[in-house]
Protein backbone atom coordinates (compact mmCIF):
# COMPACT_ATOMS: atom_id res chain seq x y z
CA UNK A 1 0.00 0.00 0.00
CA UNK A 2 1.28 3.44 -0.85
CA UNK A 3 1.10 6.13 1.83
CA UNK A 4 -1.12 9.16 1.20
CA UNK A 5 2.04 11.28 1.07
CA UNK A 6 3.52 9.12 -1.71
CA UNK A 7 0.24 9.27 -3.63
CA UNK A 8 0.15 13.07 -3.27
CA UNK A 9 3.75 13.46 -4.47
CA UNK A 10 3.23 11.19 -7.47
CA UNK A 11 -0.03 12.87 -8.48
CA UNK A 12 1.39 16.37 -8.10
CA UNK A 13 4.50 15.57 -10.16
CA UNK A 14 2.60 13.69 -12.88
CA UNK A 15 1.92 16.92 -14.88
CA UNK A 16 5.69 17.51 -15.02
CA UNK A 17 6.01 14.06 -16.53
CA UNK A 18 3.37 14.92 -19.10
CA UNK A 19 5.54 17.77 -20.33
CA UNK A 20 8.83 15.88 -20.23
CA UNK A 21 7.40 12.37 -20.61
CA UNK A 22 8.89 11.48 -23.97
CA UNK A 23 12.21 13.08 -23.05
CA UNK A 24 12.35 10.86 -19.98
CA UNK A 25 11.45 7.67 -21.81
CA UNK A 26 13.83 8.42 -24.70
CA UNK A 27 16.63 8.87 -22.17
CA UNK A 28 15.38 5.78 -20.35
CA UNK A 29 15.60 3.55 -23.43
CA UNK A 30 19.08 4.79 -24.30
CA UNK A 31 20.41 3.99 -20.81
CA UNK A 32 18.47 0.71 -20.63
CA UNK A 33 19.91 -0.62 -23.89
CA UNK A 34 23.44 0.60 -23.09
CA UNK A 35 23.35 -1.40 -19.86
CA UNK A 36 21.24 -4.35 -21.12
CA UNK A 37 21.78 -4.77 -24.85
CA UNK A 38 20.27 -8.26 -24.63
CA UNK A 39 16.86 -6.57 -24.29
CA UNK A 40 17.22 -5.51 -27.92
CA UNK A 41 16.25 -9.11 -28.66
CA UNK A 42 12.77 -8.30 -27.38
CA UNK A 43 12.08 -4.70 -28.41
CA UNK A 44 10.99 -3.70 -31.90
CA UNK A 45 13.84 -1.56 -33.23
CA UNK A 46 11.64 0.03 -35.90
CA UNK A 47 9.18 1.28 -33.29
CA UNK A 48 12.11 2.60 -31.26
CA UNK A 49 13.53 4.49 -34.22
CA UNK A 50 10.21 6.14 -34.93
CA UNK A 51 9.83 7.17 -31.28
CA UNK A 52 6.47 5.40 -31.16
CA UNK A 53 7.40 3.13 -28.30
CA UNK A 54 8.70 6.03 -26.22
CA UNK A 55 5.40 7.86 -26.67
CA UNK A 56 3.38 4.76 -25.79
CA UNK A 57 5.33 4.12 -22.61
CA UNK A 58 5.28 7.81 -21.64
CA UNK A 59 1.50 7.95 -22.06
CA UNK A 60 1.06 4.86 -19.92
CA UNK A 61 3.32 5.98 -17.12
CA UNK A 62 1.58 9.35 -17.08
CA UNK A 63 -1.88 7.78 -17.05
CA UNK A 64 -0.81 5.37 -14.31
CA UNK A 65 0.52 8.25 -12.19
CA UNK A 66 -2.78 10.12 -12.54
CA UNK A 67 -4.64 7.01 -11.43
CA UNK A 68 -2.20 5.72 -8.85
CA UNK A 69 -4.90 5.58 -6.16
CA UNK A 70 -7.39 3.78 -8.42
CA UNK A 71 -5.30 1.60 -10.68
CA UNK A 72 -8.30 -0.59 -11.45
CA UNK A 73 -9.35 2.20 -13.86
CA UNK A 74 -6.31 1.25 -15.94
CA UNK A 75 -6.98 -2.48 -16.04
CA UNK A 76 -8.36 -2.64 -19.60
CA UNK A 77 -5.28 -0.75 -20.87
CA UNK A 78 -2.97 -2.88 -18.72
CA UNK A 79 -4.51 -6.02 -20.19
CA UNK A 80 -4.00 -4.77 -23.73
CA UNK A 81 -0.30 -4.07 -23.05
CA UNK A 82 0.07 -7.28 -21.03
CA UNK A 83 -1.10 -9.31 -24.03
CA UNK A 84 1.72 -7.74 -26.05
CA UNK A 85 4.23 -8.24 -23.22
CA UNK A 86 3.23 -11.90 -22.82
CA UNK A 87 3.43 -12.57 -26.52
CA UNK A 88 6.96 -11.12 -26.56
CA UNK A 89 8.25 -12.98 -23.49
CA UNK A 90 8.42 -10.04 -21.04
CA UNK A 91 8.91 -11.59 -17.59
CA UNK A 92 8.66 -10.51 -13.91
CA UNK A 93 12.46 -10.32 -13.65
CA UNK A 94 12.55 -7.59 -16.33
CA UNK A 95 10.48 -5.15 -14.25
CA UNK A 96 13.11 -4.14 -11.65
CA UNK A 97 15.56 -3.43 -14.52
CA UNK A 98 13.04 -1.17 -16.26
CA UNK A 99 12.20 0.49 -12.91
CA UNK A 100 15.86 1.20 -12.16
CA UNK A 101 16.46 2.94 -15.48
CA UNK A 102 13.16 4.79 -15.46
CA UNK A 103 14.13 6.38 -12.13
CA UNK A 104 17.62 7.17 -13.41
CA UNK A 105 16.07 8.83 -16.48
CA UNK A 106 13.66 10.87 -14.33
CA UNK A 107 16.63 12.03 -12.28
CA UNK A 108 18.67 12.89 -15.37
CA UNK A 109 15.93 14.92 -17.01
CA UNK A 110 14.39 16.65 -13.99
CA UNK A 111 17.83 17.26 -12.43
CA UNK A 112 17.58 19.12 -9.07
CA UNK A 113 13.77 19.12 -9.33
CA UNK A 114 13.93 15.35 -8.78
CA UNK A 115 14.45 15.43 -5.02
CA UNK A 116 15.15 12.24 -3.07
CA UNK A 117 11.59 12.38 -1.78
CA UNK A 118 10.15 12.55 -5.30
CA UNK A 119 12.37 9.73 -6.54
CA UNK A 120 11.44 7.60 -3.54
CA UNK A 121 7.73 8.19 -4.22
CA UNK A 122 8.07 7.34 -7.92
CA UNK A 123 10.10 4.23 -7.08
CA UNK A 124 7.31 3.00 -4.80
CA UNK A 125 4.62 3.89 -7.34
CA UNK A 126 6.48 2.09 -10.11
CA UNK A 127 6.64 -1.00 -7.88
CA UNK A 128 2.86 -0.94 -7.45
CA UNK A 129 2.23 -0.43 -11.19
CA UNK A 130 4.77 -3.15 -12.09
CA UNK A 131 3.06 -5.61 -9.72
CA UNK A 132 -0.26 -5.07 -11.48
CA UNK A 133 1.38 -5.88 -14.85
CA UNK A 134 3.28 -8.88 -13.42
CA UNK A 135 0.16 -10.37 -11.90
CA UNK A 136 -1.95 -9.94 -15.06
CA UNK A 137 0.89 -11.35 -17.20
CA UNK A 138 1.44 -14.34 -14.89
CA UNK A 139 -2.20 -15.30 -15.37
CA UNK A 140 -1.76 -14.94 -19.14
CA UNK A 141 1.38 -17.13 -19.19
CA UNK A 142 -0.46 -19.78 -17.17
CA UNK A 143 -3.42 -19.69 -19.49
CA UNK A 144 -1.24 -19.87 -22.61
CA UNK A 145 0.65 -22.86 -21.25
CA UNK A 146 -2.21 -24.87 -19.79
CA UNK A 147 -4.56 -24.52 -22.74
CA UNK A 148 -4.89 -27.60 -24.95
CA UNK A 149 -2.05 -27.44 -27.47
CA UNK A 150 -0.65 -24.42 -25.62
CA UNK A 151 2.88 -23.43 -24.66
CA UNK A 152 4.51 -20.72 -22.57
CA UNK A 153 7.16 -18.89 -24.59
CA UNK A 154 8.37 -19.28 -28.16
CA UNK A 155 8.15 -22.61 -29.95
CA UNK A 156 9.46 -23.76 -33.32
CA UNK A 157 7.02 -23.99 -36.20
CA UNK A 158 7.58 -25.18 -39.77
CA UNK A 159 6.19 -23.46 -42.86
CA UNK A 160 3.97 -26.03 -44.58
CA UNK A 161 2.48 -23.75 -47.24
CA UNK A 162 3.20 -20.31 -48.70
CA UNK A 163 0.50 -18.62 -50.81
CA UNK A 164 0.59 -15.31 -52.66
CA UNK A 165 -2.73 -13.63 -51.85
CA UNK A 166 -2.14 -10.38 -53.78
CA UNK A 167 0.72 -8.37 -55.27
CA UNK A 168 1.69 -7.37 -51.71
CA UNK A 169 0.30 -9.96 -49.28
CA UNK A 170 1.60 -13.52 -48.85
CA UNK A 171 0.19 -16.13 -46.45
CA UNK A 172 2.34 -18.51 -44.42
CA UNK A 173 0.83 -21.69 -42.94
CA UNK A 174 2.67 -22.64 -39.74
CA UNK A 175 2.68 -26.07 -38.11
CA UNK A 176 4.40 -26.96 -34.81
CA UNK A 177 7.66 -28.78 -35.45
CA UNK A 178 6.69 -31.28 -32.73
CA UNK A 179 3.51 -32.08 -34.73
CA UNK A 180 1.28 -31.14 -31.75
CA UNK A 181 -2.04 -29.40 -32.34
CA UNK A 182 -2.09 -25.60 -32.03
CA UNK A 183 -3.99 -23.93 -29.20
CA UNK A 184 -7.26 -22.26 -30.10
CA UNK A 185 -7.64 -18.50 -30.43
CA UNK A 186 -10.34 -15.92 -30.77
CA UNK A 187 -10.76 -14.42 -34.24
CA UNK A 188 -8.85 -11.13 -34.29
CA UNK A 189 -5.97 -12.29 -32.07
CA UNK A 190 -2.32 -12.26 -33.16
CA UNK A 191 0.87 -14.25 -32.71
CA UNK A 192 4.44 -13.02 -32.40
CA UNK A 193 7.08 -14.29 -34.77
CA UNK A 194 10.74 -14.20 -33.75
CA UNK A 195 13.42 -14.33 -36.46
CA UNK A 196 17.20 -14.27 -36.47
CA UNK A 197 18.09 -12.65 -39.79
CA UNK A 198 21.62 -13.61 -40.91
CA UNK A 199 24.00 -10.69 -40.35
CA UNK A 200 21.76 -9.07 -37.71
CA UNK A 201 22.99 -8.93 -34.14
CA UNK A 202 19.63 -9.26 -32.41
CA UNK A 203 16.49 -11.26 -32.98
CA UNK A 204 13.53 -9.35 -34.43
CA UNK A 205 9.93 -9.84 -33.29
CA UNK A 206 6.75 -8.92 -35.07
CA UNK A 207 3.06 -9.44 -34.35
CA UNK A 208 0.80 -10.76 -37.10
CA UNK A 209 -2.95 -11.33 -36.86
CA UNK A 210 -4.09 -14.88 -37.43
CA UNK A 211 -5.84 -14.74 -40.77
CA UNK A 212 -8.16 -17.75 -40.81
CA UNK A 213 -10.78 -19.46 -38.66
CA UNK A 214 -9.21 -21.77 -36.06
CA UNK A 215 -8.10 -25.16 -37.24
CA UNK A 216 -6.11 -27.44 -34.87
CA UNK A 217 -3.39 -28.35 -37.41
CA UNK A 218 -1.90 -24.96 -38.30
CA UNK A 219 -1.91 -21.20 -37.91
CA UNK A 220 -2.02 -18.87 -40.86
CA UNK A 221 -0.57 -15.36 -41.01
CA UNK A 222 -0.75 -13.09 -44.04
CA UNK A 223 2.09 -10.62 -44.31
CA UNK A 224 2.23 -7.41 -46.30
CA UNK A 225 5.54 -6.69 -47.97
CA UNK A 226 6.73 -3.35 -46.57
CA UNK A 227 9.41 -1.22 -48.26
CA UNK A 228 12.79 -2.92 -47.75
CA UNK A 229 14.71 0.25 -46.80
CA UNK A 230 12.11 1.03 -44.13
CA UNK A 231 13.17 -0.53 -40.78
CA UNK A 232 9.53 -1.60 -40.46
CA UNK A 233 10.03 -3.75 -43.55
CA UNK A 234 12.97 -5.84 -42.41
CA UNK A 235 10.97 -8.80 -41.17
CA UNK A 236 8.29 -8.75 -43.86
CA UNK A 237 10.92 -8.59 -46.62
CA UNK A 238 12.80 -11.46 -44.99
CA UNK A 239 9.63 -13.56 -44.76
CA UNK A 240 8.61 -12.83 -48.35
CA UNK A 241 12.04 -13.35 -49.91
CA UNK A 242 13.83 -15.87 -47.74
CA UNK A 243 11.29 -18.00 -45.89
CA UNK A 244 9.84 -20.93 -47.79
CA UNK A 245 8.05 -24.23 -47.24
CA UNK A 246 10.17 -26.41 -44.92
CA UNK A 247 11.81 -23.45 -43.10
CA UNK A 248 11.18 -22.79 -39.42
CA UNK A 249 10.12 -19.77 -37.42
CA UNK A 250 9.73 -19.23 -33.69
CA UNK A 251 6.16 -18.45 -32.66
CA UNK A 252 4.53 -17.43 -29.36
CA UNK A 253 0.98 -18.41 -28.41
CA UNK A 254 -2.00 -16.30 -29.62
CA UNK A 255 -2.66 -13.05 -27.76
CA UNK A 256 -4.62 -9.83 -27.94
CA UNK A 257 -7.89 -8.29 -26.83
CA UNK A 258 -9.19 -7.27 -30.23
CA UNK A 259 -11.58 -10.07 -31.09
CA UNK A 260 -15.26 -10.66 -31.64
CA UNK A 261 -17.63 -13.00 -29.88
CA UNK A 262 -18.60 -15.26 -32.76
CA UNK A 263 -21.75 -16.60 -31.12
CA UNK A 264 -23.52 -13.27 -30.54
CA UNK A 265 -26.68 -12.80 -32.62
CA UNK A 266 -26.28 -9.00 -33.17
CA UNK A 267 -25.45 -7.77 -36.69
CA UNK A 268 -21.74 -7.22 -37.16
CA UNK A 269 -19.86 -4.98 -39.61
CA UNK A 270 -16.23 -5.91 -40.38
CA UNK A 271 -14.45 -2.97 -41.99
CA UNK A 272 -10.86 -3.21 -43.20
CA UNK A 273 -8.32 -1.24 -45.19
CA UNK A 274 -5.35 -2.96 -46.87
CA UNK A 275 -3.65 -5.63 -44.78
CA UNK A 276 -6.07 -4.78 -41.95
CA UNK A 277 -8.21 -7.41 -43.71
CA UNK A 278 -6.35 -10.19 -41.83
CA UNK A 279 -8.17 -10.12 -38.47
CA UNK A 280 -11.44 -9.17 -40.22
CA UNK A 281 -11.22 -12.18 -42.48
CA UNK A 282 -10.58 -14.43 -39.47
CA UNK A 283 -13.77 -13.05 -37.87
CA UNK A 284 -15.77 -13.53 -41.05
CA UNK A 285 -14.61 -17.14 -41.55
CA UNK A 286 -15.22 -18.00 -37.89
CA UNK A 287 -18.77 -16.59 -37.97
CA UNK A 288 -19.49 -18.38 -41.26
CA UNK A 289 -18.33 -21.66 -39.65
CA UNK A 290 -20.09 -21.33 -36.31
CA UNK A 291 -22.96 -18.86 -36.51
CA UNK A 292 -24.10 -18.64 -40.13
CA UNK A 293 -27.42 -17.04 -39.14
CA UNK A 294 -25.71 -13.89 -37.88
CA UNK A 295 -26.08 -10.84 -40.17
CA UNK A 296 -22.58 -9.87 -41.36
CA UNK A 297 -21.47 -6.92 -43.46
CA UNK A 298 -17.92 -7.26 -44.75
CA UNK A 299 -16.41 -4.07 -46.16
CA UNK A 300 -12.91 -4.03 -47.56
CA UNK A 301 -11.05 -1.03 -48.97
CA UNK A 302 -7.96 -1.65 -51.10
CA UNK A 303 -5.89 0.59 -53.30
CA UNK A 304 -6.79 -1.44 -56.42
CA UNK A 305 -7.50 -4.96 -57.66
CA UNK A 306 -3.82 -6.00 -57.71
CA UNK A 307 -3.44 -5.53 -53.96
CA UNK A 308 -6.86 -6.95 -53.03
CA UNK A 309 -6.34 -10.11 -50.94
CA UNK A 310 -8.80 -12.91 -50.05
CA UNK A 311 -11.39 -11.91 -52.69
CA UNK A 312 -12.34 -15.53 -53.44
CA UNK A 313 -12.28 -16.68 -49.82
CA UNK A 314 -14.61 -13.82 -48.83
CA UNK A 315 -17.07 -14.80 -51.57
CA UNK A 316 -16.95 -18.44 -50.43
CA UNK A 317 -17.74 -17.44 -46.83
CA UNK A 318 -20.52 -15.11 -47.95
CA UNK A 319 -22.25 -18.07 -49.56
CA UNK A 320 -22.25 -19.90 -46.20
CA UNK A 321 -23.93 -16.97 -44.43
CA UNK A 322 -27.72 -16.67 -44.37
CA UNK A 323 -27.56 -12.90 -44.31
CA UNK A 324 -24.15 -11.73 -45.48
CA UNK A 325 -23.29 -8.64 -47.51
CA UNK A 326 -19.87 -7.87 -48.92
CA UNK A 327 -18.54 -4.64 -50.43
CA UNK A 328 -15.19 -3.89 -52.02
CA UNK A 329 -14.13 -0.27 -52.33
CA UNK A 330 -11.13 0.40 -54.57
CA UNK A 331 -9.48 3.70 -53.95
CA UNK A 332 -8.24 3.95 -57.53
CA UNK A 333 -10.16 3.75 -60.80
CA UNK A 334 -12.65 0.99 -60.93
CA UNK A 335 -15.00 1.55 -63.85
CA UNK A 336 -17.21 -1.28 -62.60
CA UNK A 337 -18.14 0.25 -59.30
CA UNK A 338 -19.86 3.38 -58.10
CA UNK A 339 -18.06 2.83 -54.80
CA UNK A 340 -14.64 3.85 -56.16
CA UNK A 341 -12.76 6.36 -54.01
CA UNK A 342 -12.42 6.70 -50.26
CA UNK A 343 -14.77 4.93 -47.90
CA UNK A 344 -16.83 7.79 -46.45
CA UNK A 345 -19.88 8.29 -44.25
CA UNK A 346 -22.29 8.37 -47.21
CA UNK A 347 -21.11 4.99 -48.45
CA UNK A 348 -20.99 3.45 -44.97
CA UNK A 349 -24.51 4.63 -44.18
CA UNK A 350 -25.87 2.68 -47.15
CA UNK A 351 -23.94 -0.47 -46.25
CA UNK A 352 -24.25 -0.84 -42.49
CA UNK A 353 -27.21 -1.86 -40.36
CA UNK A 354 -27.60 0.82 -37.64
CA UNK A 355 -27.72 -1.85 -34.93
CA UNK A 356 -24.38 -3.34 -35.89
CA UNK A 357 -21.41 -3.80 -33.67
CA UNK A 358 -18.46 -2.59 -35.80
CA UNK A 359 -14.86 -3.82 -36.04
CA UNK A 360 -12.32 -1.68 -37.88
CA UNK A 361 -8.73 -2.44 -38.80
CA UNK A 362 -6.31 -0.79 -41.21
CA UNK A 363 -3.76 2.00 -41.55
CA UNK A 364 -4.09 4.79 -38.98
CA UNK A 365 -5.50 7.42 -41.40
CA UNK A 366 -8.07 4.92 -42.70
CA UNK A 367 -9.15 3.98 -39.20
CA UNK A 368 -9.49 7.57 -38.05
CA UNK A 369 -11.59 8.43 -41.05
CA UNK A 370 -13.81 5.31 -40.77
CA UNK A 371 -14.33 5.75 -37.03
CA UNK A 372 -15.33 9.41 -37.55
CA UNK A 373 -17.70 8.36 -40.32
CA UNK A 374 -19.29 5.67 -38.16
CA UNK A 375 -19.87 8.17 -35.38
CA UNK A 376 -21.33 10.59 -37.94
CA UNK A 377 -23.86 8.04 -39.15
CA UNK A 378 -24.97 7.42 -35.57
CA UNK A 379 -23.11 4.29 -34.45
CA UNK A 380 -22.37 4.75 -30.72
CA UNK A 381 -18.64 4.64 -29.86
CA UNK A 382 -19.14 1.70 -27.50
CA UNK A 383 -20.14 -0.36 -30.54
CA UNK A 384 -16.98 0.60 -32.47
CA UNK A 385 -13.97 -1.66 -31.87
CA UNK A 386 -10.67 -1.06 -33.58
CA UNK A 387 -7.07 -2.11 -33.63
CA UNK A 388 -4.05 -0.12 -34.69
CA UNK A 389 -1.15 -2.15 -36.01
CA UNK A 390 1.75 -0.86 -33.90
CA UNK A 391 2.01 0.66 -30.43
CA UNK A 392 -1.21 2.33 -29.30
CA UNK A 393 -0.47 6.02 -29.03
CA UNK A 394 -3.29 6.87 -26.68
CA UNK A 395 -4.60 5.11 -23.65
CA UNK A 396 -8.19 5.41 -22.47
CA UNK A 397 -8.55 5.70 -18.73
CA UNK A 398 -12.21 6.52 -18.55
C1 LIG B 1 5.18 -2.47 -25.15
C2 LIG B 1 4.18 -0.04 -21.11
C3 LIG B 1 7.34 -2.79 -18.68
C4 LIG B 1 8.90 -4.57 -22.88
C5 LIG B 1 4.64 -1.59 -24.26
C6 LIG B 1 3.63 -0.62 -24.60
C7 LIG B 1 3.37 0.06 -23.48
C8 LIG B 1 4.19 -0.46 -22.42
C9 LIG B 1 2.35 1.18 -23.34
C10 LIG B 1 3.02 -0.40 -25.98
C11 LIG B 1 1.94 -1.40 -26.19
C12 LIG B 1 1.43 -1.36 -27.60
O1 LIG B 1 2.14 -1.83 -28.48
O2 LIG B 1 0.34 -0.85 -27.82
C13 LIG B 1 4.93 -0.60 -20.10
C14 LIG B 1 4.85 -0.21 -18.71
C15 LIG B 1 5.73 -0.99 -18.02
C16 LIG B 1 6.38 -1.85 -18.99
C17 LIG B 1 3.93 0.87 -18.15
C18 LIG B 1 6.06 -1.00 -16.55
C19 LIG B 1 5.18 -0.86 -15.60
C20 LIG B 1 8.06 -3.50 -19.61
C21 LIG B 1 9.15 -4.39 -19.30
C22 LIG B 1 9.62 -4.87 -20.50
C23 LIG B 1 8.79 -4.30 -21.54
C24 LIG B 1 9.66 -4.72 -17.91
C25 LIG B 1 10.75 -5.83 -20.74
C26 LIG B 1 11.98 -5.51 -20.62
C27 LIG B 1 8.02 -4.15 -23.85
C28 LIG B 1 8.12 -4.54 -25.24
C29 LIG B 1 7.04 -3.95 -25.89
C30 LIG B 1 6.31 -3.20 -24.89
C31 LIG B 1 9.21 -5.40 -25.85
C32 LIG B 1 6.69 -4.02 -27.38
C33 LIG B 1 7.28 -2.81 -27.93
C34 LIG B 1 7.78 -2.93 -29.27
O3 LIG B 1 6.95 -3.01 -30.19
O4 LIG B 1 8.99 -2.93 -29.34
N1 LIG B 1 4.96 -1.48 -22.93
N2 LIG B 1 5.86 -1.59 -20.22
N3 LIG B 1 7.86 -3.48 -20.97
N4 LIG B 1 6.93 -3.35 -23.69
FE1 LIG B 1 6.38 -2.53 -21.96
Automatic annotation (TrEMBL):
Site note Influences the redox potential of the prosthetic heme and FAD groups applies to: 84, 387
In this chain the Globin domain maps to 1-138
Site-annotated residues for Involved in heme-bound ligand stabilization and O-O bond activation: 29
Molecular function, one GO term:
nitric oxide dioxygenase NAD(P)H activity
Region Reductase, annotated ranges: 149-398
For the ligand (FAD), the binding residues are: 190, 206-209, 388-391
Give the EC number(s) listed in the UniProt record: 1.14.12.17
Its required cofactor(s), as named, are: heme b; FAD
What is the free-text note on the cofactor?
A: Binds 1 heme b (iron(II)-protoporphyrin IX) group per subunit. Binds 1 FAD per subunit.
Q: Which PANTHER family match?
A: FLAVOHEMOPROTEIN
Recorded protein name is Flavohemoprotein
Q: Name the species this protein comes from.
A: Jeotgalibacillus marinus
Lineage in the entry? Bacteria, Bacillati, Bacillota, Bacilli, Bacillales
- What is this protein's gene name? hmpA
Amino acid sequence: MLSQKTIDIVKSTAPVLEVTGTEITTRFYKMLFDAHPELLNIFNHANQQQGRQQTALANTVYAAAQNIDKLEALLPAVKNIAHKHRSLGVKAEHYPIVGEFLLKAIKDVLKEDATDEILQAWGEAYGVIANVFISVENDMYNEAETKEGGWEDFKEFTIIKKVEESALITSFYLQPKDQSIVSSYLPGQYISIRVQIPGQEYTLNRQYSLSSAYTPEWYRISVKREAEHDPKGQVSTYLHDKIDVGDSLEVSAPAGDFYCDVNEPTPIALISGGVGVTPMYSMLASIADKNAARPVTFIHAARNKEVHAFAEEVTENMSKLENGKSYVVYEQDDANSELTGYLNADKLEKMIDQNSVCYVCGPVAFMESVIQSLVKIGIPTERINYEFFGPSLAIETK
